[in-house]
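Lecture 7, part 2: worked example. A protein chain together with flavin mononucleotide.
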Amino acid sequence: MVLLDIIRKRYSCRSYQQRPVEQEKLDQLFEAARLAPSAKNTQDWRFVVATDEQVKRQLATVTNRPDVFEKAGAIIAACSNSDYIMTCGQPIGPIDIAIALEHIALQATELGLGTCWIGSFETQKVRTILAIPDDIEIIELMTVGYPADTPKQPNREPVEKIVCYDKWKF
Ligand SMILES: Cc1cc2nc3c(=O)[nH]c(=O)nc-3n(C[C@H](O)[C@H](O)[C@H](O)COP(=O)(O)O)c2cc1C
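Predicted complex, written out as structure tokens:
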């Protein structure tokens, strides 16, 4: 598949087959994450991957869709140990994590896997479940698994509404 086709095919998968994701596929996802760019090439991302049924169930319970997410083959907790703020005033932690996670989501799509970003979770409970130290930021969770639904058409604004050239014209 060419990249734009993969991007078009990715969607938030909220229905999974109760089936593990093969280790070799997980390895490919984290190879995609590893190769993501990061500010100053700090690579300050750490991924805790829940594949054990009990750990996944515990994690799913502290999200907004426990019944859906617990069935995914894996739930990734994407963490950052950076508190660096760039000259532009933006923190690198969430930005670098977002890029790496989207690499994972696109690679997963290419492998026939579904993903869903999860920002609706109880941070302290995730920290306890996964034994993540207090000085590490838990930025996002992401499910990965074999879809039990079919890809949805993206609902997006037309390009004219989101892009202008040379000066702000919105
Ligand atoms: C940073 C971020 C956080 C999100 N958090 C959640 C979430 O907690 N639960 C959920 O079901 N979907 C979540 N989503 C998925 C979005 O709702 C979804 O990407 C958006 O509606 C567009 O749909 P699509 O991904 O199917 O194209 C999140 C997406 C992003 C990028």
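The CA atoms of residues 35 and 148 lie 29 Å apart. The domain at 3-148 is CATH 3.40.109.10 (NADH Oxidase). Keep this in mind for problem set question 3.
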